[in-house]
Amino acid sequence: MKLMKLFFSSRVCPGVSSSAASWLRLLSSFGRMLLVLYSIFSPTLSYSEELKLQSLSVRARVSEQTLLGDDAPEAFEVYDLAANFSLPWQDYSQSGWEAGTRLMVSAGMLQGTGGNALVVSAIPELMLGSEDGRFTLDLGAGGALFSQYRFGIQDFGGPFQFALTFGVGIPLYKNLGLGYRFLHYSDAGVNGSDTTGADFHMIELSYRF
């Protein structure tokens, strides 16, 4: 699989489907959109040397329709807990919107044919949202560790996986929020061409601090 190589390259490789290439272009456009929206505002720079916990989320897979790469030959269930920490760089505008960076860390269970795997991840993200944190858009790339990476006929390739994500969050009630999260795991072809990643569409319930 050449997903992450494509993600960091301006060229599309022949081995990737046109739908996957289109989605990669969409993700790239989404990232540029966040930067453009940030530049439109009149921000005041805020810097802190400490990580600050922003929110906690409980997430579960609701669909595994493939958007990137090859179709996964196995079906999975995914449940995890995620924590979002603000990173030092944050900008605020007079209109009440915030652009910045944050770190999303998660730990959970991946259930598939032949066993369950503990999955932990750390993904830096570019984020745009309201200053109170009620509305958020984010896009990020990072890494994950799998305690098991072979499930039936599917081989992820190794314990380390590259992780790509984007998400949308909206307010639900007081400090509670509801969101959609897309997660893709892939070894980026590091362990050979016979490995297969997976896409997960998740619903998340979050609590904002």
Condensed summary:
The protein is mostly beta strands.
List keywords for this structure.
two-stranded antiparallel ribbon, 8-stranded antiparallel β-barrel, mainly beta, elongated, 209 residues, 11 strands, single chain
Spatial ordering of strands, largest sheet: 2-3-4-5-6-9-10-11
SSE order: HHEEEEEEEEEEE
Structural class label: mainly beta
Largest sheet: 8 strands, antiparallel, barrel
Uncertain stretches: 1-23, 36-46
Proportion in helices: 10-25%
Coarse morphology: elongated
Radius of gyration: 17 Å
Strand content: over 45%
Q: How many alpha or pi helices?
A: 2
What's the number of extended β-strand segments? Answer: 11
Overall mean confidence score, pLDDT: 81
Distance between the termini: 39 Å
Topology, element by element:
Elements lengths: L2 H5 L10 H23 L2 E5 L4 E12 L13 E17 L3 E16 L2 E16 L5 E11 L3 E2 L2 E2 L4 E14 L2 E11 L11 E11 L1
Describe it.
13% of the residues lie in helices and 56% in strands. It is built from two helices and eleven strands; from the N terminus they run H-H-E-E-E-E-E-E-E-E-E-E-E. Strands 2-3-4-5-6-9-10-11 form an eight-stranded antiparallel beta barrel. A two-stranded antiparallel ribbon has the order 7-8. The chain starts with a helix and ends with a strand. 34% of the residues are buried. The model is unreliable at 1-23 and 36-46 (pLDDT under 50).
